[in-house]
Amino acid sequence: MSELACEFYNEAMKSAYRDLFPSLEYLGSATRYIGEITDIIDEVPLFDELELGEVEALCAFMHCFGAPRGVTLISEGSNGEFLLIILTGKVKIVKQSADGDATTIAVVNPGGSLGEMSMVDGQPRFASCVTLDPTDFAVLSRDDLGEIVHSMPRLGNKFLLLLLQVMTRRLRDTSDHLLPHIAGATV
Predict the structure, then answer these.
(1) Per-block mean pLDDT, blocks of 10 residues, the chain (187 long)
(2) What pLDDT score does 166 carry?
(3) What's the total number of domains in the chain?
(4) Which of the residues 19, 63, 132, 138 has the least number of beta carbons within 10 Å of its own beta carbon?
(5) From CA 127, how far away is CA 129, in angstroms rounded?
(6) Which domain range does residue 97 map to?
(7) Which helix (H) or strand (E) holds 151?
(8) What is the distance between the alpha carbons of residues 149 and 173, in angstroms, rounded to a whole number?
(9) What is the pTM of this model?
(10) Within a 10 A sphere around the Cβ of 114, how many other Cβ atoms?
(11) 24 phi and psi, to 5 degrees?
């Protein structure tokens, strides 16, 4: 990609990211927060096996936002074109039951990620994510993930494998949690 095309692409993506969260504070490119990201790197399963240079390359495709307490970052049933990595604060994951009751199914701390399933499979969001504290987070869009896979295939494939490992770990945890409740049922 030429330098001019790259600059145009970056400006277009910046605008697209701002449109995702128009009412939230846009903090800029994640490269501005590489220090904070490396401080929590041990808590970010998506970055587990990445070298510092690879994390920096990924950050070039991510944008950061700040949200006050009580803001819905992801709404259950909405389209999922991005994932979030929590940098500061806490976010609760809330699932609506068929009768309309909301149940908190998890709390995500700094280093945790949200929205991977929908970003990968294109299905509507499984649950809502609401900030419990003022929260800063980084966003990676499906389009930018595709650009990473295209322009940096080794890094893109490595990141996709880590994403798959995170999702598989969550599936195993959920299965372990549900198994006692379905013991004796035909599976």
Answers:
(1) 52 73 93 88 80 92 96 94 94 91 92 88 92 97 93 93 83 73 62
(2) 82
(3) 1
(4) 19
(5) 7
(6) 3-169
(7) helix 142-151
(8) 28
(9) 0.84
(10) 23
(11) -100, 160
The rounded distance, in Å, linking the Cα atoms of 76 and 32 is: 30
**DSSP type of residue 115:** -
100-108 contacts: CB < 8 A, separation 24 or more?
102/128, 107/132
DSSP 8-state symbol, 56: H
Which pair of structure tokens corresponds to residue 81? 């074109």
Instruction: Report how far residue 6's alpha carbon sits from residue 140's, in angstroms, rounded to the nearest whole number.
Output: 17
Q: Which CATH number belongs to the domain containing residue 114 in this structure?
A: 2.60.120.10
In a domain, 178, yes or no: no
| C-alpha span between 184 and 89 (Å, rounded) | 40
Alpha carbon distance 38, 3 (integer Å): 28
Q: Is residue 183 part of a domain?
A: no
pLDDT at residue 5, rounded to an integer: 47
Q: SS3 of 87, please?
A: strand
